[in-house]
Design brief:
single chain; 476 residues; alpha/beta; seven-stranded mixed β-sheet; six-stranded mixed β-sheet; 15 helices; globular
Length: 476
């Protein structure tokens, strides 16, 4: 793993000072290591992207679409290897790793279709004033830096990389140092497809590498997915450059269950919302608001469902939930268990780390959690669910919206008119009604409040990498 950086169409050895240890979270042990990129290598990657930009942005949109379809096909051909990496480095169960890969494949295919439509988006604009004509052009924003997190590698990078390439941008991608392996596939695919050198560059590293990229004055845009603390630093660096950013940050999302909901279905939706990827999702619905009339029936069933989840090593066991991805995250979640004990919260399930090798914790449910509890207000990023009861629809909406975050929410009700009404009232970017968190590439992704700036996926994801040029001509 010495040649772990893809710069200007070549694999090169890291020259940075940090050695990145890649771990198997189910065992709590490293299985690979690589040297981080140096600041100089980040400079080289940005320079390569800048050099490649004029040709790539002038490439016929249909040719760019062909490359994107090639990425989708090549991902499919590497299926078993990529699924195994997701399982081993992230700790994802096989079914989750397979969905991740399918998501990435669908994303490249979707943006290939949008790329083919780009010429038709340039159009003549009617003017009220005589003697003038006007037209618009959609152009690539330029060289973009993409910084992606460890909880959904391959997926989050596809959400950024595919629309950026479709728009005609060149990119420098920085994967998370926790999960640096799987994005290497994008460089391998670029080689296999003959993607022009410099269009895609990949640099691995820790905070020094990320800061060198986010502060680089050679970028025209930065797209970041990660924590609010790092996101605020990225935004500060962008403000110094007056540079546009897309930020997909944290969440503390609510799932609202009304008393007319089918209990078994509600339990299924609640469990999926907190246990998928071991709760390591910005979209985890970690605040459960359950109406009084159903609470005494639902909570015991939910308690049993969480206790019955099979937790283990996805490479050796049939599991519903794997480990937390890093020791740092394991320690963080354990600290919230300690806080819950200090606050005297009522624990109906879990509430502890598991006594086995690896970074495992128990699926956890606390009930009647006060609104000022840290567990109710802070993003934990683990399978920790906090429940409160409500009486009326108005109360449910008010409590769901009482958060500094606004990423997603779920509404569960047999009364679809009410469900739609509540969905409209929730201050978030995406709402599911009577469903698990099914994310489709045609829809948008992003939040309000402290959950970020901008949108990914759908046509909005493509627009994030485009600028609008207006050409006005006097006919006289």
């Amino acid at each position: 793993m010495t040649t772990s950086h893809y710069i200007a169409g070549h694999w090169v050895e890291g020259q940075g000072s940090d050695c990145i240890s890649v771990n198997d979270p189910a065992l709590g042990q490293p299985f690979a290591e690589l040297m981080a990129a140096s600041v100089s290598q980040v400079d080289q990657a940005v320079a390569a992207a800048r050099s490649a930009l004029p040709v790539w942005k002038s490439t016929c949109a249909s040719d760019r679409a062909a490359f994107l379809r090639g990425f989708a096909e090549q991902l499919g051909q590497r299926r078993e290897a990529l699924v195994t990496v997701q399982m081993r480095n992230n700790g994802k169960p096989r079914h989750e790793a397979e969905i991740d890969l399918d998501d990435a494949i669908a994303t490249f295919g979707y943006y290939a279709e949008l790329a083919e439509q780009l010429p038709s988006k340039n159009r003549t604009v009617p003017l009220a004033a005589p003697g003038f004509t006007a037209r618009t052009r959609l152009e690539p924003v330029g060289v973009v830096g993409l910084i992606v997190p460890w909880n959904f590698p391959l997926v989050t990078s596809a959400w950024k990389l595919a629309p950026a390439l479709a728009a005609g941008c060149t990119v420098v991608l920085k994967p998370s140092e926790v999960t640096p392996l799987i994005e290497q596939a994008y460089g391998q695919i670029a080689d296999a497809l003959g993607l022009p050198a410099g269009v895609l560059n990949i640099v691995n590293g820790k905070a020094e590498t990320g800061a060198a990229l986010s502060n680089h004055n050679g970028l025209d845009k930065l797209s970041f997915t990660g924590s609010n603390s790092v996101g605020s630093q990225v935004m500060r660096s962008a403000s110094a450059q007056c540079r546009p950013v897309t930020l997909e940050l944290g969440g503390k999302s609510a799932i609202v269950v009304f008393e007319d909901c089918d209990v078994d279905q509600a339990v299924e939706w609640i469990v999926a919302g907190i246990s998928w990827n071991a709760g390591q999702m910005c979209s985890a619905t970690s605040r459960l608001l359950v109406q009084d009339g159903i609470a005494d029936t639902l909570l015991p069933r939910l308690q049993a469902a969480l206790a019955n989840l099979r937790v283990g090593n996805p490479l050796t066991e049939e599991v519903d939930m794997g480990p937390l991805t890093s020791q740092a995250q394991w320690l963080k979640v354990a600290s919230y268990f300690a806080t819950a004990r200090e606050e005297g919260l009522q624990c109906l399930a879990g509430g502890h780390a598991l006594d086995r090798e690896g970074w495992f914790v128990s699926p956890t449910l606390y009930t009647d959690v006060p609104k000022d509890s840290r567990l109710w207000t802070e993003e934990i990023f683990g399978p920790v669910l906090c429940a409160r009861r409500f009486a009326t629809e108005e109360q449910a909406i008010a409590e769901a919206n009482d958060s500094r975050f606004g990423l997603v929410a779920t509404v569960c009700s047999a009364d679809l008119e009410r469900a739609e009404r509540v969905a409209d009232a929730l201050e978030v970017g995406h709402v599911w009604i009577n469903s698990v968190q099914a994310v489709f590439v045609e829809t948008s992704w992003g939040g309000t409040k402290g959950s970020g700036i901008g949108r990914e996926l759908g046509p909005w994801g493509l627009s994030a990498y485009q600028s609008v040029k207006h050409v006005t001509r006097c006919l006289g």
